[in-house]
Amino acid sequence: MKKSILIIALLLFGATTMSAQEAWNFGIKGGVNFANFTGDDFSSDNSRTSFNVGLLAEIPLADRFSIQPEVMYSGQGFDFYERDQDNIFDTDDNVEYQVDYINVPVLAKIYLVDGLSVQAGPSFNFKVNEEIDYQPTQDGGDIDTDLARDFEFGGVAGLEYKFNNGFFIQGRYNYGFSKLYKDDSALGDSDIHNSVWQAGIGFMF
């Protein structure tokens, strides 16, 4: 299942860029996620710190306007603190609810000045992992769950600065428009959505 999702994501990425092979620039990127949930039925200040990494292509359509498709692995979810007083389960001080995705954003990129751009657009997100990890700083401690939807439609907005040598830095916000949980799950009626702040670096070849 995970391999099929990754293949679909790569095909979407390739189809978007195939018609502009001579114009687009290829790149890699990675960074840190500060992930949480938001919505009327959820409230927690304990974000999960994780990572994102992936590939991108920039397709110039005008002097200051480009389309930028990407394929990203994104670690999401949130932390909840659940100290085991008797250490029965050998838990860490916090427990992570991990919901990880292959994200395929397709962004409009507008350069405000040389190097500095704003980016915004839809993101097509495919769940690849969902578990509760009561030992997030060690191997093991994983309890598989399957409550979240397999597909999420989201949106992305952010800022980027690209240097002349191809390196760039960026900050983004990612929001899941789809409700997080499946309709037939115990939380199906809950108004809960993914909410992720990202900071990262990358290089355009």
Report on this structure.
With 205 residues, this protein is mainly beta. It has a single domain, classed as Porin. The protein is built from 1 helix and 9 strands, in the order αβββββββββ. Strands 1-2-3-4-5-7-8-9 form an 8-stranded antiparallel barrel. β2 (48-62) and β3 form a beta hairpin. The longest helix is centred in the first third of the chain and has 17 residues, at 2-18. The protein starts with a helix and ends with a strand. Keywords: Signal. This is PorT family protein. Residues 20-180 form the Outer membrane protein beta-barrel domain. Residues 1-20 form the signal peptide. Pfam families: OMP_b-brl_2.
Which secondary structure elements does this structure contain, and how are they paired or packed?
Layout: H1 2-18, E1 25-38, E2 48-62, E3 65-81, E4 94-113, E5 116-133, E6 142-144, E7 151-162, E8 167-176, E9 193-204
Antiparallel strand pairs: 1-2, 1-9, 2-3, 3-4, 4-5, 5-6, 5-7, 7-8, 8-9
Q: Which short descriptors sum up this protein?
A:
single chain, 205 residues, mainly beta, Porin, 59% strand
Largest sheet: 8 strands, antiparallel, barrel
How many beta-strand segments? 9
Taking all Cα atoms into account, the compactness measure Rg is: 18 Å
Task: Please list the strands of the largest sheet in the order they lie side by side.
Answer: 1-2-3-4-5-7-8-9
> What would you call the shape?
elongated
Mean pLDDT: 86
Element order: H for helix, E for strand = HEEEEEEEEE
